[in-house]
Amino acid sequence: MEAELTRLRDEARAQVEVLERDLRGLFEAARASNADDEHDPEGSTIGYERAQLTAVLEATRRRVADLDDALTRLAAGGYGICERCGRPIPPERLAARPAARTCVGCA
Question: How far apart are CA 84 and CA 106, in angstroms?
Fold first, then answer.
């Protein structure tokens, strides 16, 4: 399980790097442009794109943190144990949500 959690964390970290680069590029493009995107009838605004990208970036950062926590629980022997009721988290839930902290009943 450690290898799978590490792989997932590394993938999420790589995605964070790509999203951060994309966000920087969006900021640079907005600074370089004098377009009035707020009144452009041809699609989404730069502000909307920035908000959307920022939300995805924050969710991906949370995923990295959740996977780091799961690796810590694994090393301490608490991985796969519900933090609320203390019962084992079913393997199906861990397969779907490898960083799960609670069983389905407690979630």
Answer: 7
Q: Would the pTM count as exceeding 0.90? A: no
Based on the fold, state whether residues 61 and 35 are members of the same structural domain. Answer: yes
Is residue 31 classed exposed, middle or buried when 0-12, 13-18 and 19+ CB atoms within 10 A define those classes? exposed
pLDDT 10s digit of each residue in the chain, 107 long? Answer: 999 999 999 999 999 999 999 999 988 876 766 555 555 555 567 778 888 999 999 999 999 999 999 999 999 999 999 999 999 999 999 999 999 999 999 99
Domain enclosing residue 86, as ranges: 80-107
Number of domains in the chain: 2
Nearest by Cα to 63 from 5, 21, 2, 4: 5
Among residues 17, 18, 8, the alpha carbon closest in space to that of 97 is found at 8
